[in-house]
Amino acid sequence: MTALQLDDLRHYSDTLHLPSGQRLALRFAEPDDADALQNYVRGLSQSSRYRRFLGAASELPPSLLADFTHAGEDDRFSVIAIASVDGVERIVAEARYALSADQASVEFGLSVDDSWQGHGIGAALMRNLECRATALGATRLFGDTLRSNEVMMALARKSGFAFKVSPGDWRLVRFEKQIDAEPRDIPCASWRIAAERIALRAAV
Predict the structure, then answer these.
(1) Global pTM?
(2) What CATH number has the domain bearing residue 100?
(3) Is 82 in a helix, a strand, or coil?
(4) I need a labelling partner for 134 at 20 to 30 A (CA). Which of 38, 125, 187, 188 fits?
(5) Tens of pLDDT, residues 101-149
């Protein structure tokens, strides 16, 4: 189905480069991250949680938290961006994306810690997600957001997404983008590994 083999999740780790020159580690969320990820969600402002989960939520329900920390199940993946603050690592952003193989598309959602917003993390994360989506064989990347979420809409517009009506919910707007087959300008570990495996299979 995909060229990804998730026997060692560390191989799919990346680095997000921010405009300030700061770098954030980006990797798949794993079961050991459950407490830190839950604390991250609880630490978001009420408005940020509402925009991220499209409704009132104070934390991730146990079943959803388990889903967030098991990469690849049902072709769903979660990544966390980690910054080192005074020698202590903390989650400052997260994203969740899912492959729909029959439609060759990947749907995603993301959030950034309130105190880290405005540093270019969202844009860097979206570029990385575009690369990861291509590694899964997708040709389309999309997401839904509340019509009132001007920050996400501005970010999507700046990142080259087009807008359309979201099916089934008048509160939402859908942003989507057709993605290239070989995004060399936004390299990520997922794409490099997938390309290597495809090349290896072709040579056999």
Answers:
(1) 0.91
(2) 3.40.630.30
(3) strand
(4) 38
(5) 788 999 999 999 999 999 999 999 999 999 999 988 899 999 999 999 9
